[in-house]
User: Fold these one by one.
Assistant:
Number 1:
Amino acid sequence: MIFSFIIGLAVGSFLNCLLYRLPKRKSILGRSYCPNCLHPLSLLDLIPIFSFLFLGGRCRYCRAKISLQYPLVELITGLLFLFAFIQLSYEFPVYNLRFIIFLLRNWFFISVLIFVFIYDLKYMLIEDIIVIPSIIVIFFLNLLGKIPFSLIFLGGITGLGFFLIQYILTQKKGIGEGDLRLGLLLGINFGWPKILIVLFISYLIGGFVALILLISGQKKLNSKIPFGPFLVIGSLISLFFDKII
Ligand SMILES: [Zn+2]
């Protein structure tokens, strides 16, 4: 169980690397370095969370502040991986084949969600290079986990169709193409009819936050708010507060 947390920390560290390098279209191979002084980082600087705490949140070489995003993403990924393990252990015998399949699926899905959350907030963009392969991976893991094809298919169509209708109605203004593919991914993951709950919760939270931003004057009626983060939160709530099937 503790391994789930440690694997999550490592994956979180990889997500940070991806979040930093993907927008710059840099290879994910090659050594990490400080974005401020460009000094290559040693293994000691790369231990999730501990390096950040040990170094007091500053670069060892130039003392520039390290973004809080790094330890936060690591910690949240670690905790969610641990929760996924605990939740599944209530539904399946631990280390039974379906337990392993759904653990892998949930870990993978959680990683994609965390990535989409931060990337969409920062760049108002949902990366196809992440979402499209994820759709395929999740689809096959669900089939392996013996979720009926019809439910996966219907879920996917619902997730995609829901955004496609808005996409056409708003003439591409409100909804981006990235949202269409994210809708498909969520539908494939949750299947029918759970995707309906996910969409409902996401819109509830999205509407609530938009209202607060409007009232507090931080956003105007016509300003753009990325919708991806709300879909991520709706998904995480549905993932952890409902049964797998
Ligand atoms: Zn530095």
Note: Residues 1-91 form one domain.
Number 2:
Amino acid sequence: MERKIRAVYFSPTHCTKKLTTKTAEKLSELFEAEMETMDLTLPEGRGREITLDNKDILVFGFPVYGGRIPLLLEPVIEKIKGSGNPVVIMAVYGNRDFDDAVLEARDIFTEKGFEVVSAGAFIGEHSYSKNVGTGRPDMTDIKEAEEFAVKTAEKIKTGSDGGILKVFGNKPYKERSAGIVAAPETKETCYDCMKCAKGCPVSAISFDNPRIADAEKCIHCCACVKICPVEAKYFDNEMMKNFTVMLETKFAEKKENTVFI
Ligand SMILES: Cc1cc2nc3c(=O)[nH]c(=O)nc-3n(C[C@H](O)[C@H](O)[C@H](O)COP(=O)(O)O)c2cc1C
């Protein structure tokens, strides 16, 4: 069986997608192996079991939510099957902090019997604000993702030392923040293009009328806000607005990517 590079990611606003794809593409070039992509963002992408063949390398990308792996990915990761396959973790965060997300991912995949060979905590523009992590991943981030892939490939080719990858983070992991119940509002400029409904990872926006959204389902990923061609979608929730002000005040300064190899 030929080795494949399996890029698997959840990415509502596409930052994780860019970084995970670039890392996997470079690995595919270095191993002269085919690359296969599985996008877990939309509900239909999350139902299937993912089975890795013997030598396949998994590149697993997710955005950091509240310093953790997004809760909705827990059952999805359950469905990833393999035996001792190398895993590359790509955690993408919005220039605040990745807290315990990388550690959590390392632990989950290690417990599943995979070998976590490397992990990256890369920056993506914050889902809540264009002023935090603005424009990232940029050209430098993409270059760094490629360099990360080169070092990862060297490590895989050299062979495992059998040790568990050392990463930043604490256990018990950061508590998940109390759920905000809020749905996006819609300005009058909305012209029913349906991009928001089509791009919603939890089907919270009505296809009959995209102004109607289910606040109980909404995970505030801001896919709708960022995809709207006329910027008609926004959140009017006080907690989210205050949090955004805090992010823009305290976390505007550009952070560096962190890699663990
Ligand atoms: C609900 C939610 C929680 C988030 N929590 C964090 C966080 O704890 N730390 C951080 O730096 N960024 C946080 N972010 C920002 C995202 O991690 C960041 O914008 C990432 O690039 C989004 O990835 P995507 O473009 O693949 O959706 C959060 C975003 C959302 C929607």
Note: The domain at 4-172 is CATH 3.40.50.360 (Rossmann fold).
